[in-house]
Amino acid sequence: MTDSPVNSLLKELIHFEKSSGSAVYIQIAQQIINAIQRGYLTKGTALPGTRVFGELLKIHRNTAVAVYDELASQGWVEILPNKGTFILLPEKKTANIKATSHPIGEINTYAKTTGFPFQTSFHLASTNEFSEAKYLINDGQLDLRLHPIHEFSKWYGASMKRKTIISKWKSTAKNTHSVFENQLCNYLNATRGFHIQPQNLISTRSTEMSLYIISQVLIRPKDLVLVGNLSHYASNMIFQQSGARIKTIPVDEQGLNAAFIRKNFTKGSIRCVYVCSNRDYPTTTTLSAERRLELLQLAKEFQFAIIEDDFDYDFQLEGSAMLPMARSDANGLVIYLGKLGQSLFPSFQTGFVVAPENLILEAKNYLQMLDRQGDLIQEQMLSELIYEGEMHRLLKKNGIVYKQRRDFLCECLSQTFKDKIHFSKASGGLALWLEFNPKISLVELAKQAEQLDVFLPKTILYQDKNTCAIRFGFGHLNEDEIEIVVQKLKKAYDLVLS
């Protein structure tokens, strides 16, 4: 029996990996189903007994039994006692695809390209880069080592046990706002000086999703969007994907230059202005109080919307953060984007939008298409962490560490680079803006640094005829790592300069 046509076919078709994340019996069962669907194994075909099947594939007999049980449970085979196991064709479940024009070997491959044309986006490009370097300079990410990872399972488990979770999943009507919406509303009113109601906000998976949804609601093809020069690459891609025309506005030590808008644009010509008010991305400058008032007045006069991205409001390292422009907006001109839970593990962070009720209602229609259910357990957990004050405690605790790291980085940079770089100690955030003098090729700097085990992704490099700078994120590095990275960066700089 081991050399029968069916056995030979099975031996040729079935391949599995014991080290795979999928159980062996599942891998084998899936491949047999694939063979049935493609017509290699026809209805009524007798499969070998479990002992012979196990010997054929060099698997334990119990695994062979599990394979046949799995196939039987899905309706692909019929197991008849004392007779054998026979192929079935489940009705109305799958189409019988005959692979008459394809070699048998192609059953285990999947097409690399589509068999049909489609339009690729000119504006969307992957920003993922990979390196084997030990150290990384990013654009200002947090240190996961500071997060209370051991407590997450406790918080998450407690939230899952809440009986209210089941009722929320089953609910088909929503007469009132959720506990999370109310808690988030109260939290923002307390920390950012808002006077909003739950109907003025919507929560999303991230600030990027928030901006994408808002751009879909707000922007139509050829609408003019103003951004800072320099600006956030991800935001620009989102605007361009919406069909917007993007023009840049100068940014100086007081932030976005509002006077430039008044001088160079006319009423009704601008759809919206995108601004990171507390810390400009990438330069880290704060939009001054005077500029904020001027921009609000311009928005009223010129009839454009302001998208205020306050992505790192929670990381004010000294003094008090300036309240959002949205806090002072009485005309419904500002759409406020933020992030909650940045001191938690990344999967527990959430974005949110604050805006007038009519825009929020429209935004929720778009959100339902992208993320209809959301994460109810996450919302439950965040609600409890806000109510119990844990969110505030974590921010304060981690803020002390990040401030120490910022100060240490500034000291290291000054001692190591001396007058070859210029930077300002930002009052908050997790990144510094470093300008090199004399100017060098940043591409070459990145190459030399990587050879020294320090990875500089392209997304933190900013170079044109007037700029030679990097956005140096320090949050994820401890003091020992900061010292090593700065020394290696200086060595790479000297190598390029020489």
Structure, briefly:
With 498 residues, the protein is an alpha/beta fold. 41% of the residues lie in helices and 14% in strands. It folds into 3 domains: 5-108, Winged helix-like DNA-binding domain superfamily/Winged helix DNA-binding domain (Arc Repressor Mutant, subunit A, Orthogonal Bundle), CATH 1.10.10; 135-144 and 395-497, Alpha-Beta Complex (Aspartate Aminotransferase, domain 1); 150-392, Aspartate Aminotransferase, domain 2, CATH 3.40.640.10.
Describe this structure in words.
With 498 residues, the protein is α/β, with parallel strands linked by helices. It is built from 16 helices and 17 strands. The chain has helices at 5-13, 24-37, 50-57, 61-73, 149-160, 164-170, 179-192, 207-218, 233-241, 258-264, 289-302, 357-370, 376-387, 390-417, 442-451, 479-497, and strands at 46-47, 77-80, 84-87, 135-136, 201-204, 224-229, 245-252, 255-256, 272-275, 305-309, 334-340, 350-354, 421-422, 431-436, 454-455, 461-463, 468-473. It has an eight-stranded mixed sheet, with helices on both faces. A hairpin with a 3-residue loop joins strand 2 (77-80) and strand 3. The longest helix is centred in the C-terminal third of the chain and has 28 residues, at 390-417. The radius of gyration is 29 Å and the shape is globular. 36% of the residues are buried.
